[in-house]
Amino acid sequence: PEAAGLHVEAGRRRAAAAELEARERARAGLPERWGPMGPGGAPVQVALLPQSPEFQRVARLFEATCEKRIVAIHRVQHAALWRSYTLYRDFTIAPSNDGDANERQLFHGADRDAISQISTADAAASQCFKWDRITTHASGWGIYFARDAQRSIAQRCGPPDAAGEQRMYLARVAVGSYTFGAQPVSGAPKPTCDVPGRDPAALTLFDTVVDDVRNPSVFVVFRDAAAYPEYVITFR
C-alpha cells in the first residue's frame, strides 16, 4: 500500500509539472499542446503516438485524399518560427481583413533535406527556415500549398528515399484575402478599382492567389512568415 501511494503521488507531481509547463508555454505565446523544447530552447520534432487524438486528426486530413500509408507524424516545435508566423497572422493579415486571417491547414510537399532544416536551425532565428518556392505558368513564383495531400505529392514532394519514404508538411497558413491567379505573378496583385475618384494605388494587396476563387484547392503565398510547418508527415 505504501509503494502504491508513493506511485500515485509521483504521478500527481508529474501531472502538475506538465500542467505548469503548459501554462508557461501559453504565457510565452506558444501552443499549450507542445512538449518540452530542446536544450536552450532548441527546436525539436516530436513523434506523435499513433493512438493519440493529435495523430489521428492529422492522419484523417492526409488520408481524405491520399491512399499512401503513413509511417510517422512529427509535431514541429520551433518557437522563433511560431512567433514569426503568429505576429504576421495577427498583426498584418488579420487587421487588413476585418480581423480574420482566414487561417487554414494546407499541405506542402518537401524532400528530406528541406525538412531537416527545421531541427538544425538556430532556435532564435526565424529567417533560417525558408519555404521552397516554385514557378508555374498559371500563378507564377511563390510558395505553393494544397488543400489535398494527393495534390502536394504530385506537385512538390521529392522522390522516395532509400527506404521508399516521402515527406510533406501539414502547415498552418494565414491565407487572408485571395484572388484568382490568372497571370504569372511574383507577388499578390491589387484588387481592381472600379470606384470613381478612388486611387487604385491606395488599395490593399490581396494576400494570396488561388486556382479557383469559388472552390480553391491550390494557394500561393509570397512571404515565408505566412505559414508555419506544424507537422511533418512521413509516408510510403
Automatic annotation (TrEMBL):
EC number: 2.4.2.-
Subcellular location: Nucleus
UniProt-recorded Gene Ontology molecular function terms: NAD+ poly-ADP-ribosyltransferase activity; transcription corepressor activity
The keyword NAD appears for this protein: yes
GO cellular component terms given for this protein: cytoplasm; nucleus
Biological process, per Gene Ontology: negative regulation of gene expression
Keyword Iron belongs to the record: no
InterPro entries reported for this sequence: Mono-ARTD/PARP (IPR052056), Poly(ADP-ribose)pol_cat_dom (IPR012317)
Protein name per the record: Poly [ADP-ribose] polymerase
Organism (species): Pyrodinium bahamense
